[in-house]
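pinned: reference chain
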Amino acid sequence: MLGIGKPTAGAYLCAGAPERQLAPAAAAAPDLLHKPTVRPLMELPDFAIEAKGLVKVFPATKTTPAKRALGGVDLAVPRGSIFGLLGPNGAGKSTFINILSGLSLKTEGKVWIWGRDIDEQPRDARAAIGVVPQETTVDVFFTPEESLETQAGYYGVPKKERRTAELLGALGLTDKARAYVRQLSGGMKRRLMVAKAMVHNPPVLILDEPTAGVDVELRRQLWEYVVELNRRGVTIILTTHYLEEAEELCDMIAIINRGQVVACESKQSLLRRMDTRTVVVTPEQPLAAAPELGPFQAQLRSDGDLAVDFKTNQASIEAVLNSVRAAGVHIRDLRTEDPDLEDVFMSLTYDAPGGLDPTAD
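pinned: its structure tokens
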């Protein structure tokens, strides 16, 4: 696996937060909260979510020892970003989200949601976010229309301000508005979960594995809606195991491993951590095996192409090609491959010292 530099210790406030031109709706985002107890701040916060020294320890039981799920997390999510929160199973992502949503109590540390301290202003803080959990939690005896109306009632949204029809239309559920939820497909239930999270028009939307089990077409529709919400000023926090989704959608990414934030940077900065590129050569004649290329490691791929990895700070593409020619390989075509988010993710989690074994059960 490609190597990566060791992350520096200390707090992880995302570097290189993008400057965004927010839509007019975003400039007044605190006023979008319908809940009467949410008091607008004098000015917009710099960060949609901020955590300092966040610790969560699950106490020991008769059958299990105490578990430290979060070990002093310092994290700041820039307002207006699409923020990826990535990590292997058991890394602490869901614990972090459960603390934000009030489903789990933190052991130590401070957390602010849209500038509201979750200890001092718990109702205001929770009203500032909408959460789409991993699990599908909808009442199967309600219709989608009834589900959204009930959810809006929980948040105190006046009937004249409810957006039930708008949300159902945006998520492609208009024709199912009065069908029982139990009659919906899994993908439709996931979209209904997104609609429920948005009934009170929160400035922050948290999506915890939103496309798990969703087919390609529904996934595309969901992301189109999410991107449009972001254009209107909603901060999106996304957890996903589909790294290609995070690489395409997110402008800021944090990686959590074993309850610690091991990276939090702009996507471009994170990808630049990798100092390895690959030259892929298509030879004129098929090769029986990968040749010896001196300082470079070569691999013969199943399609007959020869892949050569090199470190950009130690060698050039010209040096690689000279070694290939010196080995008697005649080049018919070539291309280069840059590292992607999966390379960075693997290096910071599974390949890191003390990291997880990807072959373990």
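why pinned: The CA atoms of residues 279 and 321 lie 8 Å apart. Confidence is low (pLDDT under 50) at residues 1-12, 15-39, 355-361.
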